[in-house]
Design a protein that fits this description.
The protein has helices spanning 2-17, 21-27, 37-48, 78-90, 103-114, 126-134, 181-191, 223-234, 244-251, 268-277, 311-341, 348-357, 365-385, 388-408, 414-428, 433-453, 455-471, 488-491, 535-538; strands at 54-61, 65-72, 121-123, 137-142, 148-152, 197-204, 210-217, 263-265, 280-284, 290-293, 473-474, 477-478. With 550 residues, the protein is α+β, with helices and mostly antiparallel strands. The chain has 3 domains: 18-152, no CATH class; 181-295, no CATH class; 311-478, no CATH class. Strand 9 and strand 10 (290-293) form a beta hairpin. Helix 13 (365-385) crosses helix 15, helix 13 (365-385) runs antiparallel to helix 16 and helix 16 (433-453) runs antiparallel to helix 17 (455-471). The termini are far apart.
C-alpha cells in the first residue's frame, strides 16, 4: 500500500515537473504582487529557473526599505542599471533626508523624484512582470509596494545599417532594414515626418512573444484594410514567430498558389512609398524584412530605381524586365514545342544548323531541356548556399565546365545550352526573388505540356497560369489590377513608368480615403518653361570677375 502510494506521488510529481514554465505563468496570470518580496521573488525564481545570467540584487532604498532588482545581465545596459537606477535608489537626496514614507508615497517618490528614466511603468500582475524580465527590462520590487517598477533597460548588439542584400540599386538610398524593430521604425519615421504616421504594436507567439508592428498613414489607408490586417494577425496562435515569413504564410489569401500575394522588402524607401499609396507595412522584431499588403502582380517587377531615374529611361528598363520575365517562363518550352512538333517555323538555314547540332544527341528535346533545367536549378541552389568567396567561382566555372562538357559528350546540343542560359538569365532579371521562384517552378509543367502537345500545350499552360492569376486576391484586391479590372490611371505605371505629374491619383483598387497625391499647381510642369537665363531674354553678354561687361 505504501509502495503504490509512493509511486503514485512520484508520478504526480513528474507530471507536475513536465509542465512548461510559460504554462504555469498563464495558469497564474491573475496573480498579483502582494507587497511581500519573499513570496513574489520565490515565484519568479521558480518560473525562470536556474540561469547564470539572471541577476537578483538585494539592496535597501535610502538605507531603510528592503528591495530587490531583477534582470538578465546579458540583455540589459549594465551601465544604465548601475548609474541611473541602482545608484539613485541607494543614495538619499538632500531634500528627502530624514523623511519616511508609506507604500503609496514611496512609489510616487521613486518615480517622480529618484529614478533617472523617462519610461518607468508600474505593474502588479506577476505574468506581465515575468514577461518584462525576459524582454530585457529591469524590475524593482520593494517591501510593502503592491506594484513592481518596470524600467526599460534592454540593450542588444546590432549590425550597422547597410545596403540591402536582396534589392540592389544603382541610384537611390543605401539604407536597409536590420533585425532591431526600433531602428526599422526610426528609418520609416525619418522619411515620414508627419503626425499622420501610425504605428500599432501587438505580440504574437505564445513562447517568443514577438513584437509585431503595423505601420500606415491615418487619413490615407482604408480603415477596413487596417482592421482586416489586425484581425488576421490576431488570429495567429503559434509558439514563436522567428521571421516575417511566418506571418506571411498565415495571412495570405491563397496558400496553395505559387505566386506570392504579399510583398517583402528590405528597403525603407520602398516601404514608405507603399505606405504613401495607402498600403500597410508589417514589421517583426528580429526580421530585416517588412511585409507590404495588399500586393498586386506588377509590384514584383518594379524597383525603387524606376521612380528615381527619368521616366523614359525607367520605362525602357522596365520593358527589358518584362521581356526577361517572359523569357524565364516560356523560352525553354517554346523551344521544345517548335523542335518537337513544328520545325517548319524555323528558318531553313537556322534549321540546318540546329539539326546538325542535335545530330548526336540521344534524347528527345523535352528530356534534354528538362535535364538541363534540373541541372541549372541544382547549380543555382548550390551557388546560393555556398560561402560568398566560393559561390562566385562555382557559378562561373560550373556553367562553363558543365555546358562545354555536356556539348562535347553529345549529351545536349549547343542550341539547348543557349536556350537554358537565356531562361536562367531572364529569371535573374526579375527583381523579386519570390516571384522569380514562382516562374521557375511553373517552367517545368509548361515544358512537359509543350513536349506532349506542342504549341497547343504551351498555350494551354499559359492560359491556365493567367486564369489562375486572375482568380487570386490579396486582402480582397484583384491580383492583376489595374489591368483586370481595368483602370486607366493605374495602367500608366504598368508597362511603362509614366511621369510623376502624369499620375496624380493613388491606386483605385486600394480605396484610399484621400486619392489625390499631387496638388493643383502640378499643372505648371506641363507648361512651357520660362527660361529665365535664355540669351534671347538677358542678352549675349559675358561678365568678368569684377562684374564689368565687355
Amino acid at each position: 500500500m505504501f509502495i503504490s502510494r509512493w509511486f503514485k506521488n512520484k508520478k504526480q510529481k513528474n507530471q507536475a515537473q513536465a509542465v512548461a514554465p510559460h504554462q504555469v505563468v498563464e495558469k497564474h496570470k491573475d496573480q498579483k504582487v502582494k507587497g511581500n518580496i519573499a513570496d513574489t521573488l520565490q515565484f519568479i525564481q521558480e518560473i525562470l529557473g536556474e540561469n547564470d545570467d539572471l541577476i537578483i540584487r538585494r539592496f535597501h532604498v535610502f538605507g531603510l526599505y528592503d528591495a530587490v532588482m531583477i534582470y538578465f545581465s546579458n540583455f540589459v545596459d549594465i551601465q544604465q542599471v548601475n548609474e541611473d537606477i541602482l545608484k539613485p535608489l541607494m543614495q538619499v537626496p538632500r531634500h528627502l533626508e530624514g523623511k519616511k514614507f508609506n507604500s503609496s508615497q514611496l512609489k510616487e517618490v521613486l518615480i517622480e523624484d529618484i529614478l533617472y528614466h523617462s519610461a518607468i511603468q508600474s505593474e502588479s500582475q506577476i505574468e506581465k512582470i515575468i514577461h518584462a524580465i525576459v524582454r530585457g527590462e529591469t524590475i524593482i520590487l520593494a517591501e510593502g509596494l503592491d506594484d513592481a517598477l518596470v524600467i526599460p533597460t534592454r540593450k542588444v548588439d546590432k549590425r550597422a545599417i547597410d545596403q540591402p542584400g536582396t534589392e540592389q540599386t544603382i541610384r537611390g538610398p543605401r539604407e536597409g532594414f536590420i533585425e532591431q524593430i526600433g531602428t526599422n521604425i526610426a528609418l520609416l519615421r525619418y522619411r515620414l515626418q508627419t503626425p499622420d504616421f501610425r504605428v500599432k504594436t501587438m505580440e504574437i507567439g505564445r513562447i517568443s512573444k514577438s513584437k509585431v508592428v503595423i505601420c500606415y498613414l491615418e487619413g490615407i489607408a482604408n480603415p477596413d484594410l487596417i482592421e482586416e490586417v489586425k484581425d488576421r494577425l490576431s488570429a495567429i496562435d503559434i509558439d514563436a514567430v522567428l521571421d516575417a515569413g511566418y506571418l506571411e504564410q498565415y495571412i495570405e489569401d491563397h496558400h496553395f498558389s505559387p505566386f506570392p500575394q504579399i510583398q517583402n522588402t528590405e528597403r525603407p524607401d520602398k516601404a514608405v512609398a507603399q505606405i504613401l499609396e495607402g498600403r500597410v507595412v508589417i514589421l517583426v522584431d528580429g526580421s530585416p524584412f517588412g511585409l507590404i499588403v495588399p500586393t498586386v502582380f506588377h509590384q514584383f517587377y518594379q524597383t525603387s530605381e524606376d521612380y528615381v531615374e527619368r521616366f523614359i529611361m525607367s520605362s525602357a528598363i522596365r520593358l527589358v524586365r518584362l521581356v526577361s520575365l517572359f523569357f524565364s517562363l516560356i523560352t525553354s518550352s517554346l523551344y521544345v514545342a517548335i523542335i518537337s512538333y513544328n520545325p517548319e517555323l524555323i528558318p531553313t538555314q537556322f534549321a540546318v544548323a540546329v539539326a546538325g547540332g542535335r545530330a548526336g544527341v540521344p534524347f528527345p528535346a523535352v528530356v534534354e531541356v528538362f535535364l538541363m533545367e534540373v541541372i541549372m536549378e541544382i547549380l543555382r541552389e548550390a551557388t546560393v548556399r555556398l560561402p560568398q568567396q566560393v559561390g562566385g567561382a562555382l557559378s562561373i566555372v560550373g556553367v562553363l565546365v558543365i555546358g562545354q562538357a555536356a556539348v562535347s559528350a553529345g549529351f545536349v546540343s549547343p542550341i539547348t545550352v543557349v536556350v537554358i542560359a537565356l531562361t536562367t538569365i531572364g529569371s535573374f532579371a526579375t527583381p523579386a526573388y519570390n516571384a522569380a521562384m514562382a516562374l521557375r517552378l511553373l517552367r517545368f509543367p509548361i515544358i512537359f505540356m509543350a513536349g506532349t502537345f506542342g504549341l497547343y500545350g504551351l498555350m494551354v499552360g499559359v492560359i491556365l497560369i493567367i486564369n489562375h492569376m486572375l482568380s487570386l486576391r490579396s486582402f480582397g484586391v484583384p491580383y492583376m489590377s489595374p489591368i483586370v479590372p481595368g483602370n486607366f490611371q493605374g495602367m500608366k505605371d504598368i508597362i511603362i513608368r509614366g511621369p510623376h505629374w502624369w499620375m496624380p491619383k493613388r491606386p483605385a483598387s486600394l480605396h484610399t480615403r484621400n486619392r489625390n497625391r499631387l496638388g493643383d499647381r502640378i499643372q505648371e510642369f506641363k507648361e512651357a518653361p520660362s527660361n529665365t537665363l535664355d540669351p534671347v531674354n538677358v542678352g549675349n553678354e559675358r561678365g568678368n570677375v569684377d562684374g564689368d561687361t565687355t
